[in-house]
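Entry 12.
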Amino acid sequence: MEKAQMRIYSIKSESSGYQLTTKSENNFSVKTDLSQKAGGKGDGASSIELFLASLAGCENFTAQIIAKNLGFTIFQSSFDIKGERNDRGLNHTPITEESPYTSRLSRIWGIVNIDTDETDEQIYQLNNILKKICPLARMVIDSGCELEIEWKRLD
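Predicted 3D structure (tokens):
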């Protein structure tokens, strides 16, 4: 068996109330916050929205690698991704007792329309490989969350 080639990722964050500002190892900054309706100031995307954006980014990057290896090009992608969770998992009371509901996302779904020179067979192959090797997609699936993101040709 080959020796693992581990990669370490690093962030640094500071919070004030519900707001959190994070700097990446490449010195990019991102802010998370709750909406005003949920008690925050609404000055940033929610952590769930950023997770969905990260998943889309990871799938995009991974799809480009897959396409290159399979010999085709993805010129442009358009993502429409949604996620759902049961609020009772997070808001169960008393909070000191385990909730019978999970707080994690239970389902993530959507469509990725792509402008490409690939065949329908290659798009199908891309979908299957993507779920196996995209780090965030793999983590989502392994968590028990349903992942139903379909890559298809732009009509």
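Annotation: The chain has two domains: 1-45, 47-153. Residues 121 and 127 are 10 Å apart (CA to CA).
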